Amino acid sequence: LVGMLSFNFNSLTGQAVKGQEVTVTASPSNVYFTFDDLNKGNKLVAVTVKVNSGKIDNELYLYRKTAQGEERVGAQDSICKGTATYCGKGTYTVNYKFSSGNEEADYFFRVQKRDFAGRARLTFDSNVLSVTHYEAPYRGL
Q1: Which of 107, 127, 123 is nearest to 64 (CA)?
Q2: What is the DSSP letter of 7?
Q3: 4: buried, middle or exposed (CB in 10 Å: 19+, 13-18, 0-12)?
Q4: What is the rounded CA–CA span in Å between residue 117 and residue 112?
Q5: pLDDT tens digits for 55-91?
Q6: How far is 128 from 109, CA to CA, in rounded Å?
Q7: Contact call for residues 113 and 22 (beta carbons, < 8 A)
Q8: Is the peptide bond between 28 and the residue preceding it cis, with omega within 30 degrees of 0?
Q9: In the chain, at which residue ranges do the beta strands (DSSP E only) sit?
Q10: Nearest to 49 by CA among 15, 11, 76, 14
């Protein structure tokens, strides 16, 4: 029973909860593309990655939720500045360019961290972002 309670059921990684090693937060959580925005192409989403211990891979991934689960739809290098492979303890902000070409759906960001032996990857997901687009009002006959 104690072993069952030590797992994080919000993120089904199979990893025991050790406190929040890494937190990922995206803002705003609702991305709405107006009629004019659809022609401009991008909106910025601020993604804050806080590494409380250890190191994470220096890549930020964008996922879309689907009926089958999830699908990776984008990536951006350089959570931390420079060409480092890993980002250490600290707080990092990435301004992710969210395209109006992204379909209406729920999305989230993911960062990864290798386990202590360097074999498996632990994943840390952000809050969910809802993306919607302007839709012209229906003008019936």
Answers
A1: 107
A2: B
A3: exposed
A4: 14
A5: 999 999 999 999 999 999 988 868 998 778 899 999 9
A6: 8
A7: yes
A8: yes
A9: 22-27, 30-33, 42-51, 56-57, 59-66, 69-77, 86-87, 90-99, 105-114, 121-125, 129-133
A10: 76
pTM: 0.78
Amino acid identity, position 77: D
The tokens describing 103, both together, are 């379909």
Q: Which residues contact 96 (CB under 8 A, 6 or more apart)?
A: 26, 44, 45, 46, 47, 60, 62, 76, 109
| C-alpha of 60 from chain center | 7
Amino acid at 25: T
